[in-house]
Amino acid sequence: MKACGVSGAEKEVALLELPEPSSPGPGQILVAVEAAGVGPWDELLNGAGWDVGLRPPAALGVEGAGEVLAVGAGVTGLAVGDRVLAHEAPLPGGSGFWAERVLITADHTAACPPGLDAVQAAALPVNGLTALQALEKLDLSRGQRLLITNGGGATGALAIQLAAAEGFEVTATASSAAAERLLGLGATEVVDYHDPNWSAKVRGGFHAALTIATSTAGDALPLVRDGGRLCSLTSDAPPEERGITSWDLYVEPDAAQLAHLAERVAAGTLKLAPEPLPLSEGPAAFARVVAGQAGGRKIVLTRT
């Protein structure tokens, strides 16, 4: 089958021909991939910090959407022909979603709501689950203030929408070009991160901070009030001080959360901005995302 990934000791991402996945075992399903998300985390899959059980030669990718081709023993609630989406890690078949077919765990899989196309569905899992899980752990109340760095990225834009829907007051850092879009998504204030003194331009006393841009946690911490909370998505949470709880968060598969998010996207209350590209452009798409050149769009690889 056609795929995009890594062949072995060589770390270069390339187009590949891979063997078909094995038949699904107990609790597993085989999915014909229609679309698969690309994220900066995919650079970590190739022996660089995130062990998802990849067994090269293998496709990269830990999220996607498609149609169920086969179900293993003990699988309930899913049948051949169902449209699904998922974030999967570890990968039970040793290979990921940037391929024509992938083997995944049924319990990590959500049904794709009617009307939600594959590109939108594939753009959601990792960014959506990350944003939702971070906000749930930050545990804010209506009217409280939240600082989000890199609000213009795929995760940040979803976090802004989810936070605004809960009645949180959101200040986000982003490029000036993204400001109008983020205000439209629910941010109260957008600060240009290109300004080296951006942290001095905002009113402190935030109840919490969600840092999505690398190396911003240290700048954000002084802006959080005593006893507040800071969640870093870039593995650089600073030491706790002034009673502030500070931690790094790593996304986990969660079918129930994903189903909830997918319903909101299908209903139009949660907006995504995917950029679909054919699987054949996978290596170039990966290079763009890793270099931070996606322009706030979520790149999604499609099978056509």
Automatic annotation (TrEMBL):
Database matches in Pfam families: ADH_N, ADH_zinc_N_2
InterPro entries linked to this entry: ADH-like_N, ER, Lipid_raft_assoc_Zn_ADH
Domain Enoyl reductase (ER): 8-301
Annotated signal peptide: none
PANTHER family the record matches: PROTEIN AST1-RELATED
Descriptive protein name: NADP-dependent oxidoreductase
